[in-house]
Amino acid sequence: MRHLTEEELIEHYFSEDANRIVVETHLRICGRCEQDYDEISNALAVHGPEPPAREPGYGRRIWQSIQQPLLPYPSKPQHRFFFVPRLAFAGACLLLLIATFLAGRIWERTHTRPSQAVTPQAEKERVVLFILDDHLDRSERLLVQLNHAVSGEEAAGLLLQAEARQLLADNRLYRQTLAGAGDPLLSAALDHLERVLLEVANSPGPLSDAEIARLEKEMSTDSLLFQIRVLRARVSSQQPKSEFSRKGA
Amino acid sequence: MGNDDHALIRAVLAGDKDAYGLLVERHSESVFRVAFRITESEADSDEVVQETFLRGYRSLADFHARSSFRTWIYRIAMNSALKTLDKRKAEASIPVVEEYDDGRPGIQLTDPAAGPDRLLLDREIEARRHAAMEKMSPTERLAFVLRHLEGRSTEEIAAALDMSQSSAKQAVFRAVQKLRRSLAPLWVKS
User: Fold this and answer.
1) Closest in A46, A70, A82 to B10, CB measured
2) What is the pLDDT of residues B99-131, one digit of tens each?
3) Is the pLDDT of residue A222 over 90?
4) Extents of the domains making up chain A
5) Do B157 and B80 lie in a common domain?
6) CA dihedral sign, ordered A201, A203, A204, A208
7) B108 C-beta neighbours (distance < 10 Å), count
C-alpha cells in the first residue's frame, strides 16, 4: 500500500485534492497516514494573534490621514483606454494583427533576395549564436533558481553548484572567444556572469540564505539576470536572420 | 465589487481624487488584516495600511484593468509589511523568540482559567510557531498567510505574488512543512 505524501495530506487539508474520496478512504484504513494528517491539522490549528477589529469609520480615518499630499491625476486622453469596450479593443487588435501578417507576406514576396551561398563565416556565426543562446538560457535558469533558492535544501544547493561549475567552464570559453568580437555589452555580461558562477561554484557548502543575499547584493544578480534576458532576446532575434540567409541559399 | 473598483479607478485617473477615498474605505480593513498577519503588531499594521494606500495612489496609473484591485493592493501591502518587518528586525526591537513577551497581542490558545502547565505549553507553542514563521522565506510566509489565515484561493495567491499557481502551492506546502517540523516535538511530549 502506498502511503500518502506530505504534499497530498496538505492538499487534502486545504480541500485541494482531486481525488478526495480516495484520500479519505485511505486515511480511514492507514494508521500512519492518519497520524501524519493529525499532526498537520494540529500544526495548522495553531494560530498567531488574531487581527484586532477596527473601529467603524477606520477606512475614512485612513483616507483623511493620507489624502492631504495627494495631487489629483490630470485628466489624460490615454485613460480613455478604459472606456473603449473590450470587444472593440480586441477586434482592433485582431485587425492590426492580420494587417501586420499580410504586410509581412507582401514584403517577403517583393523583397526576397536572390539566392546567396552561405559563407563559412556566416555559418560559423549562426552556430555561435545557437550555442550562445543555449548557454544564456541555462545561465538564466541558474540565476532564477539562485534568486529563489531556499537554504537548508542541501540537494538543490549541490545541484546548483554542479550546474554552476559546468557553466563556468563554458562561460570562460565563450568569453574568450567573443572577447575580440567588439560587443562590449556581451563581454561585460559574460564577465559579470563568470564572477557570479565562480562564487556559486566555489562556495564551501550548500548556499545559505545569508550567502544568497550577499550574492544578490554584492554581485547584483538581479541586474545580471536582466542583462542576460536582454542578451537572449537580442541573440534570439539575430537567429532568424541567419535562418533567412540559409533559406535563401 | 471588482467592477465597481474599476469604475472608481477610472474616476481617480480622470481627476476625481475623492473616488480613491471610497477604495480606501472599501479595502482598508482587509489590508489591515493581512498586514497584521505579517507584522503581528497593531501600530505597524496601521502604518502599513497608510503606506500601502499612498503607494497605491501614486502607482494607480500602472494598474492593469484585467487584474483585481484587491489582489493588486494586497501585493503592495505585503511588500510594505515585509519591509516594516525587516526594519523592525534591523532595529532589534522584536523580542527574542524564546523570551516570550506578555505584552504582545494575545494568542488565541489559552483558556483564561487554564492551569500553569497549560499556560506554559501555550507559551512554548507560540514561541515555536513564531520561530517557524521566522524560518519561512518571505514568499512562503505571504503564501501561507493568504492561504491558511485569509482563506484565499491558490489562483488569487499566485496573482498577488506574481507567480505560477504551482509555485504558489509549493510555497504554501513548504511553509506548512516548516510549521509542522517546528511544532512536532510538542505533539510527542503531549
Assistant:
1) A82
2) 444 444 444 444 556 677 778 888 888 889 888
3) no
4) 6-44, 120-248
5) no
6) negative
7) 12
Domain at B15, CATH number: 1.10.1740.10
Model-level ipTM above the cut of 0.85 = no
Q: Does A182 touch chain B (CB under 8 A)?
A: no
Q: pTM for this one?
A: 0.54
The per-residue pLDDT for range A100-136, each reduced to its tens digit, is 888 888 888 777 665 555 566 666 667 777 778 888 8
B80 and B8 in one domain? yes
Residue of B nearest to A61 (CA): B25
What residues of chain B, 58 to 77, have a C-beta less than 8 Å from chain A? 58, 60-61, 65
Q: Which of residues 137-176 of B touch A (CB under 8 A)?
A: 137, 139, 147-149, 154, 169, 172-174, 176
Asked if B123 is an interface residue toward chain A (Cβ–Cβ < 8 A), one would say no
A49 and chain B: CB distance < 8 Å anywhere? yes
Domain count, chain B: 2
